[in-house]
Design goal:
Elements lengths: L2 H6 L7 H18 L5 H8 L2 H10 L4 H9 L3 H9 L6 H8 L4 H8 L6 H32 L1
Length: 148
C-alpha cells in the first residue's frame, strides 16, 4: 500500500463514492415511485372490460373527457383506453385512485380478491357506509318529529 491509499483507507473516495451516492439517490427516487414497463400487463389492464364498464357507468355522457380529467391523460388516449386499443398506465391508475372515484376503481381492481386483508377492508367500508346512512336517516327522522 502506498501513502495515498493509507490516507484514504476507511474514507469514501471523493470521486467514485459521491457520484455513486448521487446516482443511488436519483435511481432510488425513480425506482421507488415508478414501475417497470411490462407490455403483457399493460395489455391485460387495457382489455379489462370491468374497468372500462365502470368508467362508462361513472360517466355515461362524455366518458373519454371525464377519464381525461380524472386520470390526467389526453382525450385521445382516454378514447383509446375506453375502446380497448391501449392500456391504462400505472400513473393514470394511480391518478384515478387518488380522485373522487378512487373507491369504485379500487373495488373494481380488487374484484375477486379473497385475501383476508381485503375482506376486512371491505367489511369496514360497508360498516362505515351503513353508519353514514343510519346517521342520515336519524337526522331525517329528527326533522320529521320537529315538524309535528
Amino acid at each position: 500500500m502506498d501513502a495515498s491509499s493509507l490516507m484514504t483507507a476507511g474514507r469514501p473516495n471523493s470521486r467514485t463514492d459521491r457520484s455513486v451516492g448521487r446516482a443511488t439517490a436519483a435511481n432510488l427516487a425513480a425506482e421507488d415511485f415508478s414501475f417497470p414497463r411490462n407490455d403483457a400487463i399493460d395489455r391485460q389492464v387495457c382489455r379489462w372490460n370491468g374497468l372500462r364498464n365502470l368508467f362508462r357507468r361513472l360517466w355515461p355522457a362524455k366518458a373519454s373527457l371525464e377519464l381525461h380529467f380524472a386520470a390526467g391523460c389526453s382525450v385521445r388516449h382516454a378514447e383509446r383506453i375506453l375502446s380497448g386499443k391501449c392500456g391504462l398506465s400505472l400513473e393514470h391508475a394511480q391518478a384515478l385512485l387518488h380522485s373522487e372515484h378512487g373507491l369504485p376503481v379500487l373495488r373494481e381492481l380488487m374484484r375477486g380478491c379473497r385475501e383476508r386483508w381485503w375482506l376486512d377492508i371491505e367489511a369496514r367500508l360497508e360498516i362505515a357506509d351503513l353508519e353514514r346512512r343510519q346517521a342520515a336517516l336519524r337526522a331525517s327522522l329528527d326533522q320529521q318529529e320537529r315538524r309535528r
